[in-house]
Each structure stands twice: as structure tokens, then as C-alpha cells.
Amino acid sequence: MAAFTYTTSAHLYVKRKTIGCALAHRLPHIASVIRCPSPTGSGSRGAVLPLAEDPVRLSLTNSTLYQYDADGAQVSVLHSPQAEHLKNGEDRLHQPEMRVRLKNGERSLRAALAERNAAKNRITLSGGVVGEQTSGTHHYHITTASLHYHPEQQQAETADPITLTSETSRTEAVGARWDMNTNHFTLDHNLKSTYEPAP
Description:
Largest sheet: 6 strands, antiparallel, barrel
Shape: globular
Strand order of the largest sheet: 3-4-7-8-6-5
Distance between the termini: 45 Å
Order of helices and strands: EHHEEEEEEEEEEE
């Protein structure tokens, strides 16, 4: 299995809630800015409840994640206008757009949200997932509600309804697996396809 290297570039964006009132109580000038209640509850009605821990460790704007293969060649670029690195090691990327460059063409994926697991070997896209693949003169457009993408294997799968369209065909199914290395789709069930030959 090929080794992969990930690098990222982004602008750090610190939100007020990242500071948290627990830290602000140690810094009175910050507490006054973000209007935290007194830790003793004085000046307020009732006891002050402890704040829920913020799961976000780091927030980034205009984040770009690069993936390289064992030979140092760039394989994919994943861009997100807002990305969050969580304390449990997972990542959350809003409005992600990804491009994968393979020997037999380019693949692209975009969605409302992408969540990368702590092991960094699976990215789950959800919310209007759109995929495109181009190989020579063939171009395919894929839409589905959610998709699991495995970057090291360049494979993806979904259990949701999926639609594949090209210049001359339209295919609908429920559940599919996409091998990006070979441009091969395996459709699970409830297949319906129409084909219009070129004039």
C-alpha cells in the first residue's frame, strides 16, 4: 500500500467561544469583553451552570489540504472555506471541494459538509454531494445525499439513492461503489437507466 503525506495551508480564525468563560474568569479584561457571568454567581440570579466543553480545538478559514503519494506527486487537493479540527482528532470541513488527479483522468467531489475521521482514512460527505469524473472524451456527473470517500484507495461508496448522468445516458440506483482508479461503478439495486445514442 502506498504511503501518503498530508499538508495543509490555512488562515487561523479564533472565535470568542474558543476562549471560553472558564479561561476568561482568569483574565478579567477578557471576561468583561465577552460578558461572562461571575464564577461565584454574584450579581446574577441562581447558580452559574458549567459551560459545555467546546469540541473544536482549532478553527481555520480558507483551508487547503494536499495529499501526496509515496513518490511525492500530488494526488488530491481539498479546499474548504471553513474547517474545524476537533479535540477527538476528527475534522469538519464546510462546503468542501476536492479534486483528485489520477492517470486516467480527474475526479471532483463537493458537498455541504465533509467529516474526516481521526484515522484520516475516511471522509464522509453529506448534503447535496456532487461528483464528476472525466476520462478522455467521457464525462460523468454523480449526485447523491451522502458518500464515504477513502483517499488512500481512491474509492467511494454510498447506500443512498444515486444518479449518474452523461452526455447520452441517465442511470438511477440505490447504493453504489465507485473505484476512481478504474472509473468503474458498481450499482447495488433498483436500477433504472435510459440511453440516447448520439445522432
